[in-house]
Design brief:
mainly alpha; two-stranded antiparallel ribbon; elongated
Amino acid sequence: MEMEKTVDLKYTGHFGQLRIYLFRLFRLFVFQGDWKVLPMSAVIAALVTMAVGRGLFISMEGTFQGTFAVTCVCIWNGFFNSIQSICRERPIIKREHRAGMHITSYVAAHMIYQLFLCNAQVIITILVCGALGMKYPATGVGEESFIPEFFITLVLITYAADMMALAVSAIVKTQMSAMTVMPFMLIVQLVFSGFLALPGAISDVTKLMISKWGVQSLCTLSHYNDLPAVMIWNKMAASGDRIDIGGFTTLKEVMAMIEEQGMRDTVLNKLGEASARDDFASTYENILTSWFALTMFILVFAVITVVFLEYIDRDKR
């Protein structure tokens, strides 16, 4: 049987091998439990919705926190999809490469399969978040419908993280090494996402992070700059009784007067205008720049995967 398999690979073209490896991956999906990533993504989406869903797309602060959380979900899903995909079958790859495997066909099969997983996870995430009460905006960039652009963005974030993990899986020695590296990869993405204020030149590192472009694209879609800023108002309300204004009244009483006159929303919108960010402006330039950056991550990590596997015969591990 092994000789027949070897001969088949040797004389099978790129597309034939692509089909063989793709079918094998889907058999693993059905019979070896790879499908478990789908219900896991549903559980994670439900937890995130319960934690940050109320403020997402409603206020600036809630949207920034929520898009960061959603980006983290996508990155986690992508990492978990493929971090062990190659290293778990490294001996098989080495044997089949010597028997005529085309590395490009093997990697292309993984890319197609992982894209299928990412699409399924994003669909589940959107459905679960919507079912649990997350209110999606009516439009995305311009007057386009929000959901299609939201879907594309989540797929690109998840797939970019997936391909990064696939490249790591092609580099590391064992499954244990892969699972050891994954938390470190996630921490780096979180720290340099732009969510935290970083000093000086260190902030430029964020441009090399999937998370940075994920947050930027989601905030762009969410009309971040058009949302009210509520954090300052809430802080003022919490301390209003303790702050006198000219010895005549308290800050809380002033805020109550603003609310009585129906000016609260106006004040919140003015605070939002003062907090607007150019990189979060709802423009085609911003969303296309983010999508382009995520697409480049996908291509670069695909090339890295191919390069490392092309030299697998020299690997003495």
